[in-house]
Design a protein that fits this description.
Elements lengths: L1 E5 L14 H12 L6 E3 L2 E10 L2 E10 L6 H12 L6 E7 L7 E5 L7 H10 L4 E6 L9 H5 L8 H13 L1 H5 L3 H11 L16
Parallel strand pairs: 1-4, 1-5, 5-7
Antiparallel strand pairs: 2-3, 3-4, 6-7
Helix pairs in contact: 1-5, 2-3, 5-7
């Protein structure tokens, strides 16, 4: 089994926030691969399903922790312990301010880089889980980071956002087969990121 966790904050107030791109990715994966219905378990909204890979079907538990972002590790850690899933079989999708909007990177291990959900996961799982880092850009100044990530995506961002979410779901068999490098490449092939630097948003997109 593979556990896939999308990170975000629960409730309609946060639904369209940049910080909730992980929830959006989880929803798109569930839609694309026709996962079962949502239910409440492990302090999360979970769905179960199977995804066909080149070497056969892989069972996936998809979860959206309802603990709020900063406590995501409690829910994911509980789930991993229950199913005896090792960290390398946990894939976490989250927003990444140090990547330009629409960029995507897979990474295993390392630090939290200021992402509080990832920090919580490290404290409950150790560092060796896999991260699908989804770029939302940096506002340019440290004091603007919180309103940036807790702000909604602009209408102008919808084309790259929708393309990235579809690509993350469509290419998922590569990640489930353990080929993160191929997965990253395929996501970026299907959804090339817009051509601007991570900090241009703060300068009005010049």
């Amino acid at each position: 089994m593979i556990i896939i966790a999308g990170l975000g904050n629960p409730g309609p107030k946060y639904e369209n926030n940049r910080h909730n791109i992980g929830f959006m990715a989880a929803d798109e994966i569930a839609r694309r691969w026709r996962f079962g219905p949502e239910r409440a378990k492990f302090q999360s909204v979970i769905r179960e399903g199977e995804v066909e890979t080149a070497s056969g079907a892989v069972r996936v538990l998809l979860m959206k922790p309802q603990t709020y972002m900063n406590e995501s590790g409690r829910a994911v850690g509980e789930t991993a312990r229950f199913y005896k899933v090792r960290p390398e079989s946990v894939i976490v999708f989250h927003d990444e301010i140090d990547l330009a909007p629409g960029r995507f990177r897979m990474k295993t291990g390392g630090g939290a880089a200021g992402q509080n959900g990832v920090r919580s996961l490290i404290s409950h799982l150790g560092a060796d889980f896999r991260r699908g880092r989804m770029g939302v850009g940096h506002p340019g100044e440290a004091h603007l980071v919180m309103p940036h990530v807790l702000g909604d995506f602009h209408k102008a961002e919808k084309p790259w956002l929708d393309a990235l979410l579809r690509a993350v779901a469509d290419a998922l068999p590569f990640a489930l087969a353990g080929d993160d490098e191929r997965y990253q490449g395929e996501v970026m092939r299907l959804a090339p990121a817009p051509k601007y630097s991570p900090r241009q948003q703060a300068r009005g997109g010049e």
